[in-house]
């Protein structure tokens, strides 16, 4: 005689799991588990999202594995704080300026620390059969009406119907953590319905269900993030009424809506972000919600130029053929950090790391536009391409009128100052006689610089022009070897952070790298004391 549904459920619910875990709550052969019957046969146990985060974090710490891959520069402060909060089971409030990887951090947690879970196929609300109490599941399998003292939304009506129709053969799919992550950018037009759900008029019309029956419910972001993570970006922008809708979830793990006499339990881990100005502004966040977000963690911009360069290299989206000279990467990073520290710029708003990321993408594109595409060369950015950076410089001015013209002037001064500081480093320790010999070479001669000039081929190619400046050529050749060595030494440092170094590997870019160095040295000679060269439009001449 075959076992009854009651016996099968009793055996599965009351006995320990019969599987080895490869992640928190994940059987080693989980991809072969495709029905409710399969789950019951191994006595599957569903873990809450916060338990998944905690248990997976513990395993990664024990095994010495990366906990938050791709997160750079937070090792000494933010990461330990985050570890503590997750181990404590806290809902988390990340506070920091624009471009400090707050949402990237939450996305990484969803990808790395949430385990796959079994949900009823095509469920919008991540319905797991084990959301249901044993007696409720038995009622569905027996095709009876569950006996409930208080109506609770355990799983959707559609999922309930599947269990009634398919019984133990109810189809299951495993849903990854990233699919159970929901991100909401708080804007004034976000409604309470967006959060908690609403009556779907289409369901009412098409299916003929009554308006206030649960069958007419269309889930909001809270229920779509069930067993996962809900991230509210810029929480203080939500008005108090919408914040109240979140409060009951944090306080009691449940919410109700005015449309349905039913309790919803999203069982989600909650993250929120805010910039420091709104975070400290009284009344922006209602006090009970502020208090229920148990851990408040403050982020920051990269502390070192090495961290900032690593972030830029990790995040850029550029053609595989592009080559990034280390002097240009260092200079761009220096420009970003100088902009971030300039007193004329509103530092309360901040200057995002994206300035460096988008700036490098733009420099590569400019190299393509001017040289790579027309001449079929690798795109390699130079100093002469820097003029295009102002189209990605996003900041507000403090004292000057915040006009486009003033922004361009302030940013142009920052770029020029960084070019000077960066360039003079390549001339440190140079014998004065060498510099004077170069100045002598420029008597009644000039050196033409242009974005479209190449290293070789053409009257104004850099190689051809250097034939008239043997001492300058000797200096450029020596600096080429120095920079080439620096470029090669940088590769293992980035690789140790699991960052691809394909675009900084020196391979068949000898001539283009020489062009980069030629422009750097010529510009640097304009900033020595006493000056060796002057720049007049597109030509360098003796000072």
Description:
The structure is a single chain. The protein is an alpha/beta fold and 543 residues long. It folds into three domains: 1-45 and 118-156 and 165-172, no CATH class; 48-116 and 176-300, P-loop containing nucleotide triphosphate hydrolases (Rossmann fold, 3-Layer(aba) Sandwich); 305-542, no CATH class. Helix content is 44%, strand content 11%. The chain contains 21 helices and 17 strands. The protein has a five-stranded parallel beta sheet. The longest helix has 26 residues, at 470-495. It starts with a helix and ends with a strand. The model has no long low-confidence stretch (mean pLDDT 92).
Number of strands: 17
How would you state the average pLDDT, rounded? 92
State the distance separating the first and last CA atoms.
Answer: 103 Å
Helicity, as a percent range: 40-55%
Tell me the structural class: alpha/beta
The low-pLDDT segments are none
Topology:
Elements: H1 5-14, E1 21-23, E2 26-27, H2 36-41, H3 49-63, H4 78-87, E3 92-95, H5 102-113, E4 117-120, H6 134-141, E5 152-153, H7 157-166, E6 172-175, E7 181-185, H8 192-196, E8 198-199, H9 201-207, E9 217-218, H10 221-224, E10 229-233, H11 240-252, E11 255-257, E12 260-264, E13 269-274, H12 276-280, H13 287-292, E14 295-298, H14 305-315, H15 326-341, H16 354-375, H17 404-424, H18 432-441, E15 447-448, H19 462-466, H20 470-495, H21 510-524, E16 533-536, E17 539-542
Parallel strand pairs: 3-13, 3-14, 5-12, 7-10, 10-13
Antiparallel strand pairs: 1-2, 4-6, 8-9, 11-12, 15-17, 16-17
């Amino acid at each position: 005689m075959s076992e009854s549904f009651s016996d099968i459920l009793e055996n599965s619910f009351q006995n320990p799991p019969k599987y080895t875990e490869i992640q928190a709550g994940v059987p080693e052969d989980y991809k072969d588990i495709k029905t409710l019957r399969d789950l019951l046969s191994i006595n599957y146990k569903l873990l809450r999202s916060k338990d998944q985060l905690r248990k997976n974090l513990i395993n990664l710490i024990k095994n010495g594995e990366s906990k938050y891959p791709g997160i750079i520069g937070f090792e000494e402060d933010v990461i330990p704080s985050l570890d503590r909060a997750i181990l404590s089971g806290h809902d988390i409030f990340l506070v920091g300026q624009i471009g400090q990887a707050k949402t990237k951090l939450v996305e990484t947690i969803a990808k790395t620390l949430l385990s796959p879970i079994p949900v009823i196929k095509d469920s919008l609300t991540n319905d797991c059969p084990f959301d249901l109490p044993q007696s409720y599941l038995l009622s569905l399998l027996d095709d009876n009406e569950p006996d409930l003292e208080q109506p609770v939304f355990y799983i959707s009506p559609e999922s309930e119907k599947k269990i009634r129709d398919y019984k133990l053969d109810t189809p299951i799919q495993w849903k990854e953590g990233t699919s159970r992550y929901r991100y909401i950018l708080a804007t004034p037009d976000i409604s309470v319905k967006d959060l908690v759900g609403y009556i779907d008029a289409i369901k009412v019309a098409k299916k003929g269900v009554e308006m206030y029956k649960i069958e007419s419910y269309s889930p909001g972001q809270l229920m779509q993030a069930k067993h996962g993570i809900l991230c509210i970006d810029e929480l203080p922008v939500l008005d108090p009424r919408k914040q109240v809708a979140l409060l009951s979830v944090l306080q009691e793990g449940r919410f109700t809506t005015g449309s349905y006499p039913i309790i919803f339990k999203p069982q989600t881990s909650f993250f929120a972000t805010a910039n420091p100005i709104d975070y400290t502004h009284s009344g922006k966040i209602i006090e009970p919600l502020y208090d229920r977000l148990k851990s408040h963690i403050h982020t920051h911009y990269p502390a070192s130029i090495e961290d900032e360069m690593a972030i830029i290299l990790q995040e850029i989206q550029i053609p595989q053929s592009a080559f990034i000279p280390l002097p240009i990467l260092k200079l761009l990073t220096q420009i970003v950090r100088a902009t971030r520290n300039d007193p004329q710029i509103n530092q309360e708003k901040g200057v995002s790391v994206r300035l460096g990321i988008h700036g490098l993408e733009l420099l590569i594109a400019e190299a393509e536009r001017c040289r790579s595409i027309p001449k079929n060369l690798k795109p390699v950015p130079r100093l002469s391409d820097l003029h295009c950076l102002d189209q990605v410089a996003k900041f507000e001015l403090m004292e000057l009128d915040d006009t486009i013209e003033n922004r361009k002037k302030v940013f142009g001064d920052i770029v020029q100052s960084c070019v000077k500081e960066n360039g003079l480093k390549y001339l440190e320790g140079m014998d004065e006689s060498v510099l004077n010999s170069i100045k002598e070479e420029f008597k009644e001669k000039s050196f033409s610089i242009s974005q479209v000039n190449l290293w070789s081929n053409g009257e104004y190619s850099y190689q051809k022009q250097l034939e008239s400046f043997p001492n300058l050529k000797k200096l450029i050749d020596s600096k080429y070897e120095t920079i080439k060595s620096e470029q090669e030494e940088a590769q293992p440092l980035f690789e140790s952070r699991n960052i691809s170094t394909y675009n900084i590997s020196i391979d068949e870019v000898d001539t283009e790298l020489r062009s980069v160095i030629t422009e750097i040295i010529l510009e640097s000679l304009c900033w020595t004391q006493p000056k060796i060269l002057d720049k007049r439009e597109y030509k360098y001449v003796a000072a």
